Structure prediction request, 279 residues.
Amino acid sequence: MMEMENFTLFLVALCTAGAIGLVSIIFVLRWVLYYKEGLGWDGGLAEFNWHPVLIVTGFVFLQGLAIIVYRLPWTWNCSKLTMKFIHAGLNLLAFICAVIAMVAVFDFHNAAKIPNMYSLHSWLGLIAVILYCLQLVLGVGMYLIPITPVTWRATFMPLHVYSGLLLFTSVIAVALMGITEKLIFGLSNPKYKDSPPEAIFVNVLGVLLVVFGALILWIATRASWKRPSDQILHSLHTNGGGEDNTKVGPAMSQLSDAADDEAFGDVRRRSNKQDDQAN
Prediction:
């Protein structure tokens, strides 16, 4: 594995983010299973409860993993093409979770004769899902279809990175709006303002989501933790890599990159150079 600058700090940040993300999932499950009506798919409150569970698990946690997958030094031995598929796959899973979460809400509202799309939370949530779908489609079209011109990829990359981080931040903000709205509407005796145990518990969940998002953004925006270009990894291997084996990518990295180039030609090789500037 190639040496990363401030690797210990990266490892602490990564493990902390992962732990907080998993604790957030446990918290949301505890919320709906203990304080609420559990989980089901019958048009009732149990079906609605899938909404927060899938949003936290998919739209927040999986999306966060997709954002930082290029930063993991253990993956630097993999070809860039492989990492693109992993990045796209995680984003696709997050999108599927978000869509199912939306369906659960609409089913519940329709069954209970509650109007749809009347709150700011619902407006921003639907916009986030639509924009996320557009981001996913454009990302696949630009970076996984080999005939896409290299100049298009280079031009689109800054927007792709910015919009990804913006959407991730927006999703967390909308999730905070949603859980607050649920507490205000759902708690009656005692009310939310009286700080019952459920309110305090869910407030802690909101804090966990904010901390998770902050750590993901920090990991994703530190330039020293970016994945080295495939050209650097190839050069380290062919030059012997020095005395420390931890600073050298193994031969499998070179072989997998060569396989990508053979399959997709010079277009793929040149496009990866452009992609490395952002990832």
